[in-house]
Design a protein that fits this description.
Elements lengths: L1 H4 L4 H17 L14 H4 L4 H7 L3 E14 L6 H7 L5 E15 L5 E4 L10 E6 L5 E10 L4 E6 L22 E6 L7 E12 L10 E4 L11 E3 L5 E8 L10 E5 H13 L10 E5 L2 H7 L7 E6 L4 H4 L7 E5 L2 E2 L3 H9 L6 E8 L2 E8 L12 E2 L9 E5 L2 H7 L9 E6 L4 H5 L6 E5 L2 E2 L3 H10 L3 E8 L2 E8 L1
Helix pairs in contact: 2-6
Length: 479
């Protein structure tokens, strides 16, 4: 958004800025209505049609047409040739990949939110949005955020006004609330299914870095990704994202990203083009029953502080290793994933109150909501040459980089992998985004500059140490 303003005349740029500001204000939560239990058989037979009529026009289909190059050879499927010649064996040919998903219009100006995995390959893509009324518009990507599995698009509508849906406060949801899922399952056309909220705060799903999902039994199937989960007032409570299934179809276990997280990503897209997440400056671990008993907690609920960054907000707020965070602004947290969701959705700016259990007492800590620092500077480089890391993009590890990659922020120095060309030496080695290059030829690696110098003089033999999560992989490679 801000990059676009630089290329517009002054008055037009100001108008765009004013429109964006008004749009951000419009994302405020719509007022909730009192929940009531049906009082009679007649009340149970009431229709969802008014809710659907209100919400369905704002749910769209997202079509992505992506051009990719693939190596083609008569021996391409032969495992012998693929083993010895790799993916590069053959002649490159261009082909078209098509993907289909759903999306939700959250403003009359044509802003659409969908899942990141729906438009994942959109670097050289054509994105088309089809509305429920039959109109189609090209769209451009404003922001994609792999950590939340969300993406924000803007329609090229030439001044058209679009139907939109209001945000609800997902923290107001309760297990048992009625919800509707709207999307385009299997590409058959817009479909509405009903169900209830089966569970809240699901954190062990493994879909994205920020795991805190609404679970519903409303039928969600392939193609529903990016569609709307709405309440009985027709407001958006979540973005449908994944299902638990052994067959590919719905088994009544679907997951949606809460609207409060969606709102944060949309606001970031409209105001700056990047997601600004607050920096906590500590690594956390879940509580076990044994740990809870040893420190005097009645049950294993909360996030245990494992380490602290000496320059981080948590350290400055007085937190200590061994503290257990039990709530964020009076919202209880069950584990580190729940804490991360509660903390991140506060956004940057202001403070947050944490209830902390320490030595048998519950204390209150006030933590500033600050943007992460880039210390040391990232020094991003694309590595090339005759060595195992050729084809990898790397940077110095800092709090800002760690937060972007979803890594623990414990203040350690190192070189982290940002991206890997899958057809390169680094890709064949198996390097992944988020891997930390910890050692080379028995020497600890602490900076990109150091790694680059060592790669130039290493010769044809490499002893490599790679950290991935809590594991360390040691490799020996002969050139």
């Amino acid at each position: 958004m801000m990059k676009l303003l630089k290329h517009l005349p002054g008055k037009i740029g100001l108008a765009w800025l004013l429109a964006a500001a008004l749009l951000v204000l419009s994302l405020a939560t719509a007022p909730a209505q009192e929940k009531v239990v049906p009082k009679s058989q007649a009340a149970i037979k009431q229709s969802f049609a008014p809710v659907v009529q209100q919400a369905a026009p704002a749910v769209v289909n997202v079509y992505v047409r992506h051009r990719v190059k693939q190596m083609v050879s008569p021996f391409f499927d032969d495992p012998f040739f693929r083993r010895f010649f790799g993916e590069q064996f053959g002649v490159p040919q261009e082909r078209i990949q098509n993907s289909l998903g759903s999306g939700v219009l959250i403003s009359a100006e044509g802003v659409v939110v969908t899942n990141y995995h729906v438009i994942r390959s959109s670097g050289d893509s054509e994105i088309t949005i089809a509305l429920n009324d039959g109109r189609e518009f090209p769209a451009r990507l404003i922001l994609k955020d792999e950590q939340t599995d969300l993406a924000v698009l803007r329609l090229d509508g030439a001044g058209a006004t679009f139907p939109s849906i209001a945000f609800a406060d997902s923290d107001d949801l309760e297990v048992g609330d009625l919800v509707l899922a709207i999307g385009d399952p299997f590409g058959v056309g817009q479909t509405v299914t009903s169900g209830i909220v089966s569970a809240l705060a699901r954190t062990k799903v493994g879909i994205s870095d920020y795991q805190f999902f609404i679970q519903t039994d409303a039928a969600i199937n392939p193609g529903n990704s990016g569609g709307a989960l709405v309440d009985m007032d027709g407001r958006l409570v979540g973005i449908n994202t994944a299902i638990f299934s052994r067959s590919g179809g719905s088994h009544g276990i679907g997951f949606a990203i809460p609207s409060n997280m969606v709102r944060l990503v949309v606001q970031s897209a409209l105001t700056g083009g990047t997601v600004q997440r607050p920096w906590f400056g500590a690594s956390l671990q879940p509580l076990t029953t044994d740990i809870a008993e040893s420190i005097g907690l009645e049950r294993p609920s909360g996030a245990l502080v494992k380490s602290l960054h000496e320059k981080g907000p948590a350290f400055r707020a007085g937190l200590k290793v061994g503290d257990v965070i039990v709530s964020v602004d009076d919202k209880a947290v069950q584990d580190p994933e729940a804490f991360q969701y509660r903390f991140v959705t506060k956004g940057v700016g202001g403070t947050v109150e944490l209830d902390v259990f320490r030595k048998g007492k519950t204390l209150t800590a006030t933590v500033s909501l600050l943007a992460p620092i880039e210390d040391p500077p990232r020094d991003t480089r694309d590595l090339s040459g005759r060595h195992p890391f050729s084809g990898a993009k790397v940077a110095n590890l800092s709090p800002a980089v760690a937060l972007e990659l979803g890594l623990e922020d414990d203040g350690k120095q190192g070189v982290v992998v940002l991206d890997v060309d899958r057809q390169s030496n680094a890709g064949r080695l198996g390097l992944r985004r988020g891997d930390v290059i910890a050692g080379l030829n028995d020497e600890k690696i602490t900076a990109v500059k150091q790694l680059a110098v060592m790669l130039e003089v290493s010769g044809d033999a490499w002893r490599i140490a790679i950290e991935r999560g809590e594991k360390v992989f040691n490799l020996a490679i002969q050139g």
